[in-house]
Design a protein that fits this description.
- By secondary structure, chain A is an alpha+beta fold.
- Chain A is built from 17 helices and 21 strands.
- Chain A has helices at residues 18-28, 38-41, 65-77, 130-137, 156-162, 169-172, 206-210, 244-256, 269-279, 299-315, 327-338, 340-343, 363-377, 405-422, 438-444, 447-460, 492-495; strands at 4-5, 34-35, 52-53, 58-60, 82-85, 102-105, 112-116, 121-124, 142-143, 179-185, 191-195, 219-226, 228-229, 233-241, 263-268, 289-297, 320-323, 350-353, 356-357, 381-386, 391-398.
- In chain A, strands 14, 15, 16, 17, 18, 19, 20 and 21 form an eight-stranded antiparallel beta sheet that branches. In chain A, strands 7-8-12-10-11 form a five-stranded antiparallel beta sheet. Chain A has a four-stranded mixed beta sheet with strand order 2-4-6-5, with helices on one face.
- Chain A is globular, with a radius of gyration of 23 Å.
- Chain B has three domains: 3-170 and 334-340, Uridine Diphospho-n-acetylenolpyruvylglucosamine Reductase, domain 3, CATH 3.30.465.10; 174-245, Alpha-Beta Plaits; 254-311, Alpha-Beta Plaits.
- The chains are: A alpha+beta, B alpha+beta.
- Chains A and B meet through strand 11, helix 7, helix 8, helix 10 and helix 16 of A and strand 7, helix 6, strand 9, helix 7 and helix 8 of B.
Chain lengths: 500, 355
């Protein structure tokens, strides 16, 4: 997408100007851990949703928890907003800088601190890549289950912030289900442990709250993840359909038969064709939809379920059902699915990836409406769908160099999210709200609910300095909002009113 | 229609806010014994019952908080589905709301996840008397902070739950429990060893004499795992785990204080006098002991966990039920309480003193 300046600015002007802040930070950090020249700051101006850009004032790269605490104390004291950043693979502008703020990169926190095979846990620093965890523990026959598409690059700290999912959520859950303990540094610079090495901890489930909080409540500095046994066997079935409704019915029938697949993915015609052109994995390009159904578990269990699933696919109207003959074919089936996003590049110069969830039964209606909207907005849309858990990823194809297409794309995307709400779903399943979906939050939540979210934020960050302006918009009617307990000279919550 | 049903409760909450009168939220009263006793005015939510929506193929059920747990489980049973966290009832009147508010999970917890893991959404009345919806009826939803899972285990101190949406799962086709006589230390190793293998394990406990491993899954998978693990097959697996879940096992028939120690599963035996029953592969350890709360809590904390006074001994009222978290976490508790219930009317003191 083309450069679009991120318009949210924090109204609180820091007490210190840039030069003074740089010298204060350089006094507490190694020289190369403070970036302030424009050319050094450039890589931090956006995340993977590159339509939103803003150059930060300063970037800091601490390497110890103590350094993070010192930075936070200084910024708290000087009322400087802080945006924590992992690998920057987010898709909702969640780490878009603000001009008068500091970006705190956790890129140097790259160590796996401990692996305990008997306890089936690993203690890792936030900058450890998602896939690196599974690779490090594979020798013990274990792995870390959540596998977002960006898993080769995205880091565990960011996964906690976004409550990341992946293709195996229906069976193995989201990040929140796979994390035991998280250490955060609060805006005040305090190190706080949420969760424990046991399965629960006394009092409120703050661990649940920190997952998916989009860097608004604390800076994640250490994560203890749960590991699970690598299944003895995984097998995938590919089924082709000449009607998406039949594919949807098949999904319901599989689950109705008491089978919970490890992964259950659907692709529509445009996605199939693009993926096949790109990866050449043998997808039936004349099909209207394909389903990829992965079953895992013990050898016997998988053998038993494969037969049932193939039978259900046929009964539900599949025109072609194939079960991967070997590991190579299984990988090929998945390769096509995983290539679906990059493959869009062959169809159009740009694509915009959406992320809504719906109750599965409404899939035929939602796809039909989306086809109508596609005609209305004169933009093609390909659909990749985590069918098992109802998470849609429509990919709108456009060309940013054609005047007005980006705006039309965003309007179309907004309509898709409205559609998700209309059928009882959510505007985001795993990408987060960031700054991208602030407007659509009003569709999903009323003012009272938004006020409650702000009150939660206030409990963790009374000055509103941590990643301000993201995830939760200002309520439309602001009177109640202003009744929030404001302590001392805090003005930052009101300041975010300007964002609406 | 839902709005009308919830209105009397909302009115009572609004009245309580106005008159600054503390409320004691109660469903079936089956978990009255958990938490610090309170003498606040009763807010009876047991009438706010009924299943709002359930479509088995969607794997989601939404029910009002006062819905009896047995009714909910019966409905799921008819569609061959279950609540995967296997909640204990602790009484005939157990409701969905009380189960989630107490955050209780049964023997399946260490394999299938906890009550909070299955919460997808809640409708609550907050301490401003507003009816709010958080989460939803879909599996994946990261819009807004996760206030719905926050309600699980909050002991009703953050709001009155009106409706809860849960993820449900199909019932497993086969179930077998294997018994192996062994020592506590070997049992802990055995349970955690098998839990790290790709096997259809669904529960693991130790009663002081035998290690019990439950297998649930496809028939063929259960059969081959049974041969691999070995041991005597229990004659009534279902009934056995029922006694563990509902505290009907002979171990629990005691008038001594019952402590629940939540510990890292693999931790070796804790040196505290009393009798032990180990569940959740060692992550949930029940202790009958007359040792002081300080000693028990100190030991639990040193082992990386915490201790709850689950059932009090006779004539004992002063010991706090829940172990207090660190100062930093406690401060977040106070601020969150303020955020949801600014006048402090919901179950004051039930979780922690002055909260």
């Amino acid at each position: 997408m083309e450069n679009k300046q991120f318009s949210i600015t924090n109204g609180t002007e820091p007490a210190l100007d840039k030069n003074k802040l740089v010298s204060r930070l350089r006094a507490i950090l190694p020289r190369d851990a403070v970036l302030y020249e424009e050319e050094d700051l450039r890589p931090y101006e956006c995340d993977a949703l590159s339509a939103y850009r803003k150059l930060p004032m300063i970037v800091v790269l601490p390497s110890t928890i103590e350094q993070v605490q010192t930075i936070m104390r200084l910024c708290f004291q000087e009322k400087v907003p802080v945006i924590a950043r992992g690998a920057g693979t987010g898709l909702s502008g969640g780490v878009t800088p603000i001009g008068a703020g500091v970006v705190l990169s956790l890129a140097k926190f790259m160590s796996i601190l401990n692996i305990d095979p008997l306890a089936r846990t690993a203690v890792v620093q936030p900058g450890v890549r998602n896939l690196a965890i599974s690779q490090a523990v594979a020798a013990h026959g274990l792995y870390y289950a959540p596998d977002p598409s960006s898993q080769i690059a995205c880091t565990i700290g960011g996964n906690v912030a976004e409550n990341s999912g992946g293709v195996h959520c229906l069976k193995y859950g989201l990040t929140v289900h796979n994390v035991r303990k998280v250490k955060i540094v609060s805006m005040e610079g305090e190190l706080i442990t949420l969760g424990s090495d046991a399965l629960d901890s006394s009092g409120y489930d703050l661990l649940a709250l920190i997952n998916g909080s989009e860097g608004m409540l604390g800076v994640v500095v250490e994560v203890t993840v749960k590991l699970i046994p690598i299944p003895a066997r995984a097998q995938v079935v590919l089924a082709a359909f000449d009607d998406v409704v039949n594919a949807g019915t098949a999904v319901g029938n599989i689950i109705g038969a008491g089978i919970i697949p490890a992964g259950l993915e659907m692709m529509d015609k445009l996605a199939i064709q693009a993926a096949e052109d790109f990866a050449q994995v043998g997808y039936p390009t004349d099909a209207e939809a394909i389903l990829l159904c992965e079953l895992d578990g013990t050898n016997e269990e998988v053998s038993e379920q494969i037969l049932v699933v193939c039978e259900i696919m046929k009964r539900s109207g599949a025109t072609d059902v194939r079960s991967a003959r070997d590991e190579a074919e299984r990988e090929a089936f998945w390769k096509g699915r995983k290539a679906a996003f990059p493959a869009m590049g062959r169809l159009a110069p740009d694509y915009y990836c959406m992320d809504g969830t719906i109750p599965r039964k409404h899939l035929p209606y939602v796809l039909r409406r989306m086809a109508e909207l596609s005609i209305e907005y004169e933009l093609r849309v390909a659909n990749v769908f985590h069918a098992g858990d109802g998470n849609l990823h429509p990919l709108i194809l456009y060309d940013a160099n054609v005047s007005g297409e980006l705006e039309r794309t965003e309007a179309f995307g907004g309509k898709i999210l409205e559609l998700c709400i209309e059928v009882g779903g959510s505007i985001t399943g795993e990408h987060g709200v960031g700054i991208e979906k602030l407007e659509q939050m009003h569709l999903q939540f009323n003012d009272e609910e938004l006020v409650q979210f702000h009150a939660v934020k206030h409990a963790f960050d009374p000055m509103g300095l941590l990643n301000p302006g993201k995830a939760v918009p200002t309520p439309k009617r602001c009177s109640e909002y202003r009744q929030l307990p404001m302590k001392g000279k805090n003005k930052s919550l009101q300041n975010s009113d300007q964002h609406a | 229609m839902n709005q009308e049903i919830s209105e009397p409760l909302q009115q009572q909450v609004l009245h309580a806010i106005k008159t600054r009168q503390a409320l004691q939220i109660q469903g079936g009263g089956s978990k009255h014994f958990i938490g610090q006793p309170t003498d606040a005015t009763l807010l009876d939510v047991s009438g706010h019952r009924g299943i709002v929506s359930y479509d088995p193929v969607e794997l989601v059920i939404t029910a009002r908080a006062g819905t009896p747990l047995r009714e909910l489980e019966q409905t799921l049973h008819e569609a061959n589905q279950i609540l995967p966290f296997e909640p204990p009832h602790f009484g005939w009147g157990a409701t969905l709301g009380g189960t989630i508010a107490c955050g209780l999970s049964g023997p399946a917890r260490s394999f299938s996840g906890s009550a909070r893991d299955y919460v997808l959404g809640v409708k609550v009345i907050n301490g401003r008397g507003e009816i709010l919806n958080f989460g939803g009826q879909v599996m994946k939803n990261v819009a807004g902070y996760d206030c719905s899972r926050l309600m699980a285990g909050a002991m009703g101190t953050l709001g009155v739950m009106l409706e809860i949406s849960l993820k449900v799962l199909p019932k497993q086709a086969a179930e077998v429990t294997l018994i192996n006589q062994t020592s506590l230390s070997l049992a802990l190793k055995m349970m955690n060893h098998w839990a790290g293998k790709s096997l259809p394990l669904s529960a693991a406990c130790y009663d002081g004499k035998n290690c019990y491993l439950r297998l649930s899954g496809a028939r063929t998978a259960v059969k081959s795992a049974r041969q691999l693990i070995g041991g005597e097959q229990h004659s009534d697996s279902n009934a056995f785990w029922q006694t563990i879940k509902e505290h009907q096992h002979p171990f629990f028939q005691s008038s001594r204080p019952l402590w629940r120690l939540s510990l890292p599963a693999e931790r070796p035996a804790i040196d505290l006098p009393g009798e032990w029953l180990i569940d959740w592969c060692g992550a949930q350890r029940w202790l009958l002991s007359d040792s002081s709360a300080e000693v028990i809590r100190e030991q639990a904390q040193q082992a990386g966990g915490h201790a709850t006074l689950f059932r009090r001994g006779a004539n004992e009222t002063t010991t706090e039920t829940f172990q207090r978290p660190t100062d930093g976490v406690m401060q977040l508790h106070r601020r969150l309480k303020q955020a949801f219930d600014p006048t402090g009317i919901f179950n004051p003191g039930r979780l922690f003193p002055n909260l």
